[in-house]
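Progress against Task 2.4 (sequence-to-structure conversion) is shown through the following example record, which the project officer requested during the mid-term review.
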Amino acid sequence: MTKVVLLSKKTALAGDLKRRLKEDAGVVCDIFEYRPEVVEHITKFQTDGLIMIDLDTSRDIALILKGVAFSLNPDATKVIILSEDLSRAAESFEEFESMHIKILSLHESIETIVKEINVHLSEEIKQDLVKEGKEAAKLEKPATTNGSAVTMNMEFLKVFVDASKDVVAQMSGDSSISHGSPVFLSKMEELPDIAIRSRIEIISEHFKGSFFISFPKESYLGFIEIVLGERMDSIDEENKDFILELANIVYGQSKRILNSSGFELDMKFPEYYDNVIESSSPVFVIPYVTNFGPFYIKVAPNLL
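Structure tokens generated for the chain above:
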């Protein structure tokens, strides 16, 4: 069964398209009106296609298509764009030309649109899927659950360290990103001036605690400028959700790797965290160096 996600505020058209796709080709379609909902969905659920109707902001386009790279089906997700202005749509998607994108005119009949969507969704993708590195990234499941707490934390830490680097590097295009060695938060001589921080609680048989992504102000705004192509002078209601979407993608990628090794992490939603990070167990901090400034991740066992 083919499953697609549809993003549109044209509710009547979206509903009609959903019904016809189901009737004509058995395509199951979930409809969303807002970008964060789509990014969250494609990073948590298997998706074969993404349909966007008359999306006119480059910010939404960039975030959604960068999110596809971290979906459960990144190499095979088909993207269909329905637009009133084909030339403008084509320009918006130039940097994503390597993806499986088809642009259709909203001036076509609904019958033609449904037919073209079905053709695109059924097209075979002829490419070699790169498997090297993916298998190596998988962890071996610990033989027992009562082993060294530090060893267990370090296994979790490695997955989140790698995922954070990969996600930020791909979203920003900065292949030079590097990170330092893990340090204890309590041993840091100088604490960074954090302006915004997201948190995800992790609860499983093997680990309980919290994962954080933290940014100083200039780093956060610099990262947003690179990804969205828009310079902002302050962190406000318009851009603060970006850190939640970032945490959501990092956690989704980490969860897939850990769950493939039996860790059984649940679906979780990120939240803002403004409190001081304190835990009864050592809190691990990993600093990252990027072209747009530093950022940090932290793993805090037993902090829930």
